[in-house]
Amino acid sequence: MSTSTYNALTMTLEIGVLLALAVAILSFVAMIIRWKGPKRRGHVIRLLLSSAAIPCLIGIQQAILWLVFLPALGREQLAQIDAERAVRLADSSFVDVGDPAPGFALADADGSTFSMVDAKGKVVLINFFATWCGPCLMELPHIEKIWHDYGNFDTFHLLVIGREESMDSVRDFRTKNGFSFPIAPDPDRDVYSLFARELIPRTIVVSPDGIIVYSKAGFYEHDLDELRSILTQQIASLE
Question: With b meaning 16 or more CB within 10 Å and e meaning fewer, what string describes 103-123?
């Protein structure tokens, strides 16, 4: 529902409320004046009907506001935000959905080495973050939940990468926050610069054949359903 349509409906309903109120007042006055007259019954009926119409019209107005207009406005604003995000993502990225994922190898905080070459044939989720990044701190508990839900699959690998972070800083950060996902530092942005020039958090899913199938920058909770759906589909394709 557009704003102009909502405003027109609201104005119509408000006029209806005012008319019902006027009828109620006139009917009440007429009922008092002609209490003993033969038309008293008609005034009483009009008073009752107009009095009932007022809350009904107000209720309809509120229902349109909360059940129709505000949800439509929210969807419109969300679509606008997503469109703006898509532009920023495209402007800041070196690779996009449909492109081959850049190859890299990186030592993680557990003493293992992650390699895109070795990960061939698996579904890979990569998340770039920084310890000072507010949206990253909001997103990472959800990444931890994904790790708990998908980490037992042999066909799935997750790596959280600290952009411009040291090995000590990512280890301390993981311990402090109680996270268990694999984490690695990228102190000189060597790996990050293969994917983008700016914007974190940044989340990427790479298919078993090495193609990027999901890429988002920033944290918005409504992205999580799409992310989980893609991970589920990609993992299921290997079964």
Answer: ebebebbeeeebebeebeebb
Find out whether 196 and 93 touch, Cβ atoms under 8 Å.
yes
CATH code for position 197: 3.40.30.10
What Å distances lie between residue 200 and 14, 175, 207, 236, CA to CA? 48, 21, 21, 29
pLDDT tens digits, one per residue of 137-192: 999 999 999 999 999 999 999 999 999 999 999 999 999 999 999 999 999 999 99
List the one residue out of 168, 229, 163, 221 whose CA is nearest residue 197: 163
Q: How many domains does the chain have?
A: 2
For 186-236, the pLDDT digits (tens) are: 999 999 999 999 999 999 999 999 999 999 999 988 899 999 999 999 999
Question: What's the CA gap between 181 and 139, in Å, rounded?
Answer: 13
SS3 of residue 89 by DSSP: helix
